[in-house]
């Protein structure tokens, strides 16, 4: 059986991963260090799924080589801006 959540799919930001490990160690010791990354990954997945928390999921995510993920997030959070730009582009073209 393969877990549905794997590291290559979650893509947690390395800065937040290190902060999570440090905070986990401060709170729960060595066992907290081991649990920090799975807890952070769960938080990122939850943030990505809840509409109002999507910016937090984006913040916890790994930086992409293109800003495609930013465009997707912006279009999901502010669909009216995308619609206005599409109307303006149709008028110009």
Give an overview in words.
By secondary structure, the chain is mainly α. Helix content is 75%, strand content 0%. It has six helices and no strands. Helix 5 (68-77) packs across helix 6. The longest helix is centred in the middle third of the chain and has 20 residues, at 30-49. The termini are far apart.
Please render the helix and strand layout as text:
Elements: H1 7-10, H2 14-28, H3 30-49, H4 54-60, H5 68-77, H6 79-92
Helix pairs in contact: 2-3, 3-4, 5-6
Percentage of β-strand residues:
under 5%
Structural class of the secondary elements? mainly alpha
Query: Termini distance?
Result: 53 Å
Q: Uncertain regions: pLDDT < 50 for 5+ in a row?
A: none
> Share of helix among residues?
over 70%
Please provide the count of β strands. 0
The overall pLDDT, averaged over residues, is: 78
Helix tally? Answer: 6
Q: Mind describing the biggest β-sheet?
A: none
